[in-house]
Amino acid sequence: MSGFSVLLMRELRLTVRQLGDLVPALVFFLLAATLFPLGVGPEPNLLARIASGIVWVTALLSSLLTLDRLFLGDYDDGSLEQLVLSPQPLALLAGAKLLAHWLTTGLPLILLAPLVALLLNLPSEALGAMLLAMLLGTPVLTCIGGIGASLTLGARRGAALLPLLVLPLLLPVLIFGVGAIEGAATGLGARPHLLILGAILAVTLPLAPLAIAAALRQATE
Fold this sequence. Notes:
Blueprint: H1 2-17, H2 23-40, H3 44-67, H4 72-77, H5 79-85, H6 90-119, H7 127-151, H8 158-186, H9 191-220
């Protein structure tokens, strides 16, 4: 666990020093969400109906903006080879990088989501379901995105291949995340959708670091 905590703190410090890689994703989240009222009109009922989809689609795309840098810096400067040769389990170190990515991307998106919900006239009774759904869903975005980033590492036009690889795998998160918000807003209940999101997270969380570790070893050979 010492290697896990050291790598986690290293990743967080690098993110603080390189805010230029983080801020555009958060700005995109806000700007993309605010463009929808301009495109479809400011009618409150219409915005409330599509608010859940807008929140999740913009959050997903914002997360994708930062995924190509997840391992690329270490790959370019040779640090990745040192991590692979480290006595620490590579899957554990991959988990540290995933956690750092979620803390610096997923968590800020969750904190900004209520502001976007307010702009889109999302019903107040759906706000809690939205936060819970994003709390369960954004780590899955990071985990599956991390698998895609490790598989495309070193590939030509890897940044273009990454969205094509991971977007189909993220559709269940999008569907059930939107369903949880709409269920809470219509009074049908968000619990079934949240349980499915939790199940997806429970499967993804332990498997993603193992898959990433295997892909990183392949990339450094």
